[in-house]
Give the backbone structure.
Amino acid sequence: MKNKHTKFILCSAAALLLAACAQPRLADKESWRAQTDIGDFAADGRLAVKVNEKGSYANFDWTYQNQVQTINVNTPLGNTLGQLCQDSMGVLAVDSKGKKYQAATAQELSEQLLGFPMPVQYLHIWANGQWVKNAPYQLLPDGRLQQFEWTISRSLNENGTPRILLLESPKLTLRLVFDQMEKTKDTNAPAQCAARS
């Protein structure tokens, strides 16, 4: 009987240890660095936006290739709710009916469409553990970054890729949970948003 009890405790301890190892770790101050060139990547996962205690949820597919950033927002069933694309000409959004909206910056466009500015043009920088260059920033003791009135925290997988990117401002909270984020290289990737053609 004693052996069974000891075996149960050891198995439980091992299971807890393995679960702890699998948990993403919160990035610390040393994990942030100055902005450099961001390599091409593809990512997907889930996002949540919370404004005035009201939340919206969706899935996302996100690519950054040849300095063109494209984020598709999808329903859980895979239907596209909209696409946001940023290239050297500005920002373009396409809704589920194919209607296009344009602006010089992502913040202008989100203000126009949503009523509040979202820092989409900086997401790829913050997701990669960098602060935006030539702009004031502060690293907090708990490992969070403050920049452009946003407080940004990251949880990382064991391989250093982001698991959670959390952006908080006085007006809203944006949370991205990554299922995966992989480096890519497509030498034939267009230099502008596909929706422009």
Residues 1-23 have pLDDT under 50 and may be disordered.
